[in-house]
Amino acid sequence: MKYISILGSTGSIGRQALDVIRNNQNYKVVGLSANNNIELLEEQAQEFKPNIIAVYNEEKAKILKHRLDGSDIEVVSGLEGLNRVATESSANIVLTSVVGMIGLIPTLKAIEHGKSIALANKETLVTAGKLVMNAAKDKGISIIPVDSEHSAIFQCLNTENEKEISKIILTASGGPFRGMNYDEIKDVTVKDALKHPNWSMGKKITIDSATMMNKGLEVIEAKWLFNIDIEKIDVVVHPQSIVHSMVEYVDGSIIAQLGITDMRIPIQYALTYPRRTSNNLEKLNLSRIGTLTFEKPNYKTFPCLALAYEAIKIGGTMPAVLNAANEVAVDMFLKEKIKFYDIPRIIEHTMEKHSIIKEATMDDILNSDKWARKIISKDFKG
Ligand SMILES: NC(=O)C1=CN([C@@H]2O[C@H](COP(=O)(O)OP(=O)(O)OC[C@H]3O[C@@H](n4cnc5c(N)ncnc54)[C@H](OP(=O)(O)O)[C@@H]3O)[C@@H](O)[C@H]2O)C=CC1
Ligand SMILES: CC(=O)[C@@H](O)[C@H](O)COP(=O)(O)O
Ligand SMILES: [Mn+2]
């Protein structure tokens, strides 16, 4: 039996993970968490009977605590609450599926407590990849990727010699605005940007896919996860999202992982690794799909992808600044306070103003994140 805590159980990944667990008798849920959605969290708690649940929002936590009074489930709140769920003593694996850099500290705490990590929260590695991977190495714990591209690469690397890799090729759907030009995209609405062609996901990552920042964040995530030079990470647009990513070897062979667009497959793989288990999900029918196509990304129309490459090449605290600026800008776009191309404009402006710290400590990273958020509220919210 494996014991799991899920950070962000009410989100898209969290809900799908619970669905995987419903069909897998080898898992017992011991911790769950949400930000605000206490209705769903309560339902999940009643079904899975964890030892502890965390609600980030203090007021909502009080309400849920009152409702669950007399039950065996402990209700905790705030960042401290997330840390408690991440380090719950009976958990041996933690699925990090909160959105945003709020996932960083609980993930680190889980690592420090020797928990295996099933990593969906890409912002953790984007902001502090070096420190997080070093902490995992020191503790001898594994980080198994959940992000579909990284799960694919992880599977393509299995059994191969790392020295023989010539590059990693991340596939990108191109998002809802693939093939369109600046004039066609500049006035898009939030509703337009939330129409991902292939995947059903949370709002923040769906906007990231539309700007292609998602692929930029994934390039950085891949660099740290697979310990590979940024020059060896390529992006190719693959509108069908069937090839989840590829690894090219020095002899010219490319190994790819293919599958339907259902996150329950990489989630299940991360939970059952190194074994594979059967499930009731639809199987990929290649003859029905017929054609798989590939094209170059358009860095001009999607400047966020270029900004992410720039941030990781600069290194130090810059990726944390890129990430913070992106989180704030996406939130402003979702609230209809800014237009689509203001997202890369805000990120670029914030990166230009930042004085980077090269050998960054965790405090440097957290302070740079705070600095970026403050600068944006000063320069753009007036
Ligand atoms: N969805 C997908 O298919 C994929 C997602 N990912 C990555 O996985 C992560 C989660 O994405 P996704 O599931 O789509 O996101 P969602 O927005 O659907 O869910 C986010 C989860 O995090 C919780 N949360 C949000 N803010 C906070 C906070 N401040 N403190 C504590 N909890 C918080 C939410 O709680 P509440 O419900 O109460 O708001 C919810 O449980 C992201 O990093 C994303 O990039 C990676 C690959 C695919
Ligand atoms: C499902 C998943 O892993 C997402 O990150 C997805 O890849 C987003 O699609 P884009 O390729 O459009 O960014
Ligand atoms: Mn992905």
From TrEMBL:
Which top EC class is given?
oxidoreductase
Gene name per UniProt: dxr
Indicate the segments forming the DXP reductoisomerase C-terminal domain, all copies: 258-374
Q: Give the family from UniProt.
A: Belongs to the DXR family.
Molecular function (Gene Ontology), one example: 1-deoxy-D-xylulose-5-phosphate reductoisomerase activity
The name on file for this protein is 1-deoxy-D-xylulose 5-phosphate reductoisomerase
Q: What keywords does the record list, in alphabetical order?
A: Isomerase, Isoprene biosynthesis, Magnesium, Manganese, Metal-binding, NADP, Oxidoreductase
Metal-binding found in the keyword field: yes
Q: Which reaction does it catalyse?
A: 2-C-methyl-D-erythritol 4-phosphate + NADP(+) = 1-deoxy-D-xylulose 5-phosphate + NADPH + H(+)
Q: Residues that bind Mn(2+), according to the entry? A: 147, 149, 218
List residues binding NADPH.
10-13, 37, 121, 123, 202
**What EC number(s) does the entry state?**
1.1.1.267
Sequence ranges assigned to domain 1-deoxy-D-xylulose 5-phosphate reductoisomerase N-terminal in this UniProt record: 4-129
User: What are the names of the required cofactors?
Assistant: Mg(2+); Mn(2+); Co(2+)
Q: HAMAP family given for it? A: DXP_reductoisom (MF_00183)
